[in-house]
Input
Amino acid sequence: MPIDVLIVGQGLAGSLLAWLLIQQGYRVMVVDDGAENASQVAAGLINPITGRRLLKSPEVDTCLPAAKGLYQQLQQQFQQPFFVELPMLRVLNSPQQRDYAEQRQTQSAYQAYLKLGFVSCEQINAAFGLLQQQQTGYLKTRALLAVIKGYLQTSNSYRCSNFSYQDLQLEPDLQWQDLIPKQIVFCEGHQARFNPWFGKLPFQPAKGEILTGQVAENCPEQIINYGHWLLPLGAGQFKTGASFETRQLDNLPTQAAKQTLLNSLKTVCPNLANIQIIAHQAGIRATTLDKQPLIGSHPQYRQLHIFNGFGAKGSLAIPWYAQQFINYLQQQQPLPLGCDIGRYYDTHFPR
Ligand SMILES: Cc1cc2nc3c(=O)[nH]c(=O)nc-3n(C[C@H](O)[C@H](O)[C@H](O)COP(=O)(O)OP(=O)(O)OC[C@H]3O[C@@H](n4cnc5c(N)ncnc54)[C@H](O)[C@@H]3O)c2cc1C
Output
């Protein structure tokens, strides 16, 4: 069956790319092995101001409107709220970080994302104050992936199967099983490390664990960010996470990460002592050496592409990068330099 684009992986990257391509008239097939993925485990947080120095990453001003626009469009299409806008309180952890916060509040580039002044809150231990962030929130990734899967299935654009690399015929035309695609885009998340064409790219995968809990009372109403974070879901339910581990790369929840997350939460919110844990999940982020996405075409097999490496920022970054990637496929428009895998052609692709 001839198609335009075969997408391998139905995480957030493959799902949003497939959705946008189909809206633009492409014949698409998504192949996914059906295993629980990082996108489903993720909290889906969107946070424009991050790190110890409270910096705004350069792509926020372009990525955030693209993300909100696409999630709004999907919300209208499927009549479900996927993106929940929720303010964030950042716990300042030192006098130096309080200085950074004061500086940012005077900088015009930060105005849209910060409220002036600091607050305190009885429930939260914050000796150096709380910075009020706005334009923050979270994406309901599991719900979004489920409706996109349903949509792909009804339009005969989804196959639940392991994409076996050795079964791909490269010449004279691409062929996999009965499919004859013009292009293949690999969106395999951290499993791209095992891809024979792109696996040498500098991924630095990081495992993360998240707890879902329930409290009888006193659950904060805003997102609390204290290095780890607490995300209120309503009706006393919340998520807290995420741990960060680069050596033990599996999907198994650990007692050690659970204890770290609970200790960290109780230090900041001592009132949340009697928590009932209702879920404990783990996943692997496709983080990269230079913290930039890995997008582009194979230097030799030009119809093979990768769309990956969104680290811990998939919800914010994927919508904008997906549109840039489609412009690149359609009109040969150059990719944003920082994400183009051309930066690794000389070093990471054996000749
Ligand atoms: C604990 C944790 C917390 C996170 N928190 C956040 C957060 O708050 N905010 C945020 O923006 N991001 C967060 N992230 C990161 C986020 O998950 C990613 O940025 C994004 O979801 C990655 O999506 P992806 O589609 O690239 O990869 P994945 O979601 O991993 O999807 C890849 C898919 O490809 C499939 N696949 C791979 N190989 C094959 C094959 N050969 N055949 C068939 N199928 C295949 C996999 O089964 C999977 O379904 C978090 C991640 C973790 C693990």
Residues 206-285 form a domain with the D-Amino Acid Oxidase; Chain A, domain 2 fold (CATH 3.30.9.10).
